[in-house]
Amino acid sequence: xxKFVILGAGTxxxxxxxxxxxxxxxxxxxxxIVDRDETHHYQPGYLFIPFGIYSARDIVKPxxxxxxRGVELVLSAIDVIEPDQNRVxxxxxxxxxxxxxxxxxxxxxxxxxxxGLLGDDWQRNIYDFYTLEGASALARHLKHWEGGKLIxxxxxxxxxxxxxxxxxxxxxxxxxxxxxxxxxxxxxYVTPLPGAFTKPKAAELLGDFLGKKNIKLTTEYSTGSVxxxxxxxxxxxxxxxxxxxxxxxxxxxxxxxIERSGFGDELNFIPTDKHTLRSKVKDNIFVLGDATDLxxxxxxxxxxxxxxxxxxxIFDAIDERPLRAKYDGHxxxxxxxxxxxxxxxxxxxxxxxxxxxxxxxxxxxFSLLEETKTNHYGKMMxxxxxxxxxxxxxxxxxxxxxxxxxxxx
Length: 409
Fold this sequence. Notes:
FAD/NAD(P)-binding domain, 5-stranded parallel sheet, globular
C-alpha cells in the first residue's frame, strides 16, 4: 500500500485531501492528513468578528465534516519532517512514512517576534484580528470604546490575506460612523510597504480610498518595537507613532516544525518551485498555500488555484513524468470597503490588477477595480461557497490560470 501524507488540514490541505480521495484507488493508496486539533476555521471571517457581523459559530466547524471517507485524520502537532527517511515524526510519538508528502502547514501570527508587543496591554488596548481569540476580544473592546487614535500596523511582510488590514480600516470607518463617533476617532494605517498594497496600480486606488475616508496612510514604516508605557510604536529608524488603540498584524511565520526540520527560510516558509509547487527540498515533497515561500499572496484563492495545478502535477510525479502544469501566481481578492460595498482585484506574478468584469467577460457579475454593492455581496456569499464547495474540492467555474478576457489595459 502506497502512502500519501498531507500535513495541515486547513484550506489547502483539505482541498487536496478531497481531490486525491476522489481518484486514488483505495486499495492502492492510504491518504493521511495531520492537524493539531478538531476544528476548521474560515479565516477570512476573523475580519468581521470585531464589528459584530460574524460570530465564532459562523466560522468554526468540525474538521471531520469536510474530509472524505477513507482519509485518516491524525490529531497531533508535527515534531520534525525527515525527507531523507521519507517520514514525519509527530509530537504524539507516532511516525508516519510516506511515498509522497504535501506540506500545507500554513502561516500564523507570532507577536513575540516584536519587542514589547506582548505584555500587560495585550488584549487591553493592543489587539490582533488574525486569530479567533484576538478578533473576539477586540469585538468586546469596540462595543465600549469611546474614541481616540486608532493605529492599524502591519509589522512586516509577508502576511496572510494582505488586503485584510485595509479592509479592517475601511470597516472601522463604517463602524465608527454607524456608532456616531467617527468624528472622535483618528485612524492611521501604518505599513512597511511603499503604498497601500503590494501591487502599484491597486495601491494607488486603495490609497485614494483611504484618503477619501479620512484615514491617514504612513508608508515604509518598519516596526521595531512597541512602547506600551508610552503608547507608541517605534520603527527601526526611531520614528514613532502614538496610539490609544493599536490593531497589530504581527509577523507571520510558518510552522515551527519547518525550522526544526532545517529547510525553511528565516520565517519558516519552504523553498518551493514557483510554477510546479514541487519543493526544493526533495522531489516527492510538494508545498501548498501559505507554507510556501512564493512571491504570491497568502490567500484562500491562491490555495484554491494552486490545488488545481498541484492535482495535475501529482499524477505526473506518480507516473515519473515531467511536471507539466504551471502555476502563474494567480490570485483574486474581494476587498470589503464598508457601507455594503466592495472591490475586487485579479492578478498574477506578471500582471497587475486591471479594470474589467469577472469571471465572465463583459458580464461579470463582479467589477474589477471598482467599488460596487455586487462585489460586497460576492464577499459575503463566499462563506457559503467555502464551506459547501471549495473545501470539498468541487470544480468551480474559475480557471487556475489568470485570464485576460474581460480586462482592460
